[in-house]
Predict the 3D structure of the following.
Amino acid sequence: MVLQGRRSLALWGGMTLAAIARLLLLMSGASARLSRSVEIATPVTSLVRLEEGFWLKKLGLSPYAGSVYHGSPLLLEIIGPLGANSPILFLLSDFATALLIILIGKRLSAARDHYTHWNIGITHSMLFLTGETLDIGEIAALLYLFNPFTVFVCVGGSTSSFESFVVCLALYASLEGNAPLAAFAWVMASHFAMYPLVLLIPVTSRTFDLATHILCVFFLKIASALCCGPDKPRSKIFRLKSSESLKSSTNVQWQKLWSFILWSAVWSSCVLGLCNRILRHDGGLGEMLRETYGFILTVKDLTPNIGVYWYFFTEVFDFYRSFFLMVFHGNIFCMIAPLSICFYHRPIFLSFILMAVVSTLKSYPSVGDAALYLGLMGLFTHELSDFKYAFLLLNSYICVAALGPVMFNLWIWRGTGNANFYFATALAYAFVQTILIVESVNSMLRFERGLKLTIKTTLSSSKKDN
Amino acid sequence: MAGSTRLAIALSALAYILAGLPFWWKLTEVYRVPLPYREVEGFVTKQSSSSAARVHCQLQIVFFSKEETPDRDAKWSDRLEVVLRATREWSSSGFCEIEVAVTLDAKGLCLHKRGGDRAKPLWECGRVLDSLHSQDSTSIDESLKNYIGEDRAGKYTILVLLDGELSQGGGAEAVVGKYRHAWVVFPPSLLGNDEQLTRIISETAGVLLAGGKPATAVAKTMPLAADGSAILSFSLLNADPENWIFNWDFDSVESQYLSPVVDALAPVARLSVESQVLYYTPAAARSQWNADIRSHVIESKDLSFFVNANEWHLDTSAAAAGRSKVLHFAIYVPPVEECPLRIKLSSGRITSSASIDGFTSPGWGGVVIWNPPGCLVADNSTLRQRLNVNDLKTTMEVVVAQLRTLFGLPPVPPRRKAPKLSILCNQRTGFAEWELDLLLRRRVIADVNSTASTLASLLKLVESLPKMVIQQEIGVQVTTSLEAAEKAMDAGNASYQVIGNFSATAKAWAEEAFFHPSIMSLLHFPKEHQFAMYTPFFVPVLLHTVISVVKETMRYARKSSRK
């Protein structure tokens, strides 16, 4: 009971503190300064641009006129009327995201508990650290809420906190097995930010067979969670024990996949229909796609940001531009197939990795993207317990976060630095994220290998006993 | 199966890269519009073989007499033949394909001789010419213009007036008017001297057709931009405004003196005028005091340093950027302590004592040194003056003369003693009609030549860089230019205006294609650049992918064989 009390105190106290921090920042007027920062407001997520688009719409012009606004027309209708009060919405969406992360964590722990009940020789202590005070979901939620990136993005007027919420909703709904909600959230997330499209990821097949595997490569990750349940050890491991438990554990619920696809189609047409209706007097859907997805893909705005695109595309020959646009964007999609084959059984971990990949390689990244995957990383406290370079990485994140604005100031406002100063920090940021991804994948693989070894030894010892 | 997951991961990465290959092929495809190689080659050989493109000219020489001529028909027939032959030697001058017709128009006698096209209408005999006695050259010129009638570019008339009373001092005398005709006063008493007759006629024809010089001597290009335009930029330079400051009333100067010139030159060049006043613009060359003529004198060899590139900010407008052509006219007011400033010619002669002096620099423009009147005698140290139209009359005359020089004409029409030949000036525009025709012909030739060389070098360049993108637009520009140039060459009897337009179009499009931004940016595109483009990213990625595929395949084979 004492444990339980301390636990809820930590959780609710932490949440209150996070809320107070945000409110204090909001009241101190920091948002005006933060909304100008390129690390927080990208051309796609900036709230200032959204307000401009809202005014254009109000004046009867196309919200995309003048190439200022590049977001969804739905966001205009939702956030636009709020005006100066919109940070409250972002604050709420931050807490909703945190709640969703707690719920996802609950589902993941429940799944882990479930495996231990199968009595396949894995003891509870092998899978989980013991003696903890907080559930993994709660750790992850607090990590998310207290991450300075999240706080700044929430206060600084960027729609990315809203996008994080929709992505987490999709993950949660898929874990719950709620196909319509999962489809809705996935469609909305993809509509708002395009990149959640990569959460289209492979589904496992019942038997571990290469051909089927490759066939399944282009299914949905959310669908993967939907059809196969939450993260669990590899099916092979279960097969070592007995064939009966295997059947029950890895039964793919195909009808949920079909239902997801159907619902995705329904929601997509709803969203597109709504957008078409909002933009019926202007360019319509064609203009919307050109100005949102087209803008993201062709990288028309070369304003410096923390990504790696702008520097390269100011230098590259026009002749090579389209080719390298393809290569740069292709990098993101390049990762999907290998990672999916590797982690088909861990859809949430896979989405964490893919979010990190997207955040590293997207054309207009902001620290809001990092905030989301760093929060989700808390869900894998156990699996990543032997994560190396944690100290180095933490310090690198802090260094980059501090140096980026300084270099930007030196270059743009004081004129004493130059573009290379700033781009160096952007490169360092990309490098840090890459290490984080690689090391996460490595730790997860080590964890699975360890699990397999443990099972093998317990099996052989029990055989000897027999 | 053991190891199959790892193999599948490696293979999927490789498969992704392989799937990207067709996109790579498509996206880096070099688009090269087919250029008309053979046509351009044909055009260049045609253009160079005929030494110069020819524009048609018509010259008619009319022997005019109010009375019956003393000589017989047969004699005249011979004489006309001689004249016709003599004018042939001029057919290579003035960039002209000349057709000559010689006519005797006397009382009761009308004889024609001609070379070339038979279809052209001949001189109409027997028309009455009002008496030219007691008229000066200018009014004779006007009267003859009315008498000859048809006046179009490329058609020239030499009227040989067989009238003893017109000639002063009884000798032969030729005058070239400011339109497209000349007249030769030839006393009938001298008619026996055929040599003198042909000489004076052919000299006159030479002036009328080629400005009196053989064609080769003036084959330089015009100071014009690719599209046939130029900016005349006038700067009034107050070298040292501590003592005196001059300003000018340039608007009225422009409307009074420059607009007629610009309008007259319109068929040859599109000129625009700009002006500015500058202060603190010392000359970069030093002068020396010459006590004999009480002047400061600059040696002609120092003139090349006169223009002070550091202090003279002569670019009057942003429009002058890029490939446009600016002709600078700097009106230089020397400082008090250097006034009056004169130029010592290389021959050692110091220019006249007039207050104005000047020099031109080919392709750049001209400098006029304007000494404030009476600067030696009066104390002008605190003079402020706004120069009006009358103050600048002489200066503008010098400027027009300099403009003539820049366009390759003599600054003032020369006079000749033997045979006696004078050339009338066009007081208003500074350019006679026949001079404008000559300039236009020169420009047409220069344009066609430059088109040929530009197109030839463009195609050579395109051939030498096989990885260069050639956009559709360039193909269109080359074809347009080539077509226009062919038309300008084959125009034949078309009007000068049409030919001028064709040649200008040809040159403008050829230059446009050559300096197309897409070509300019790829000019310095060595093959090594391709490596620099691809290696930093693709070599590490491909290397690792291939190595891992090989490694995993071996691992998979080893594992499956062990089973």
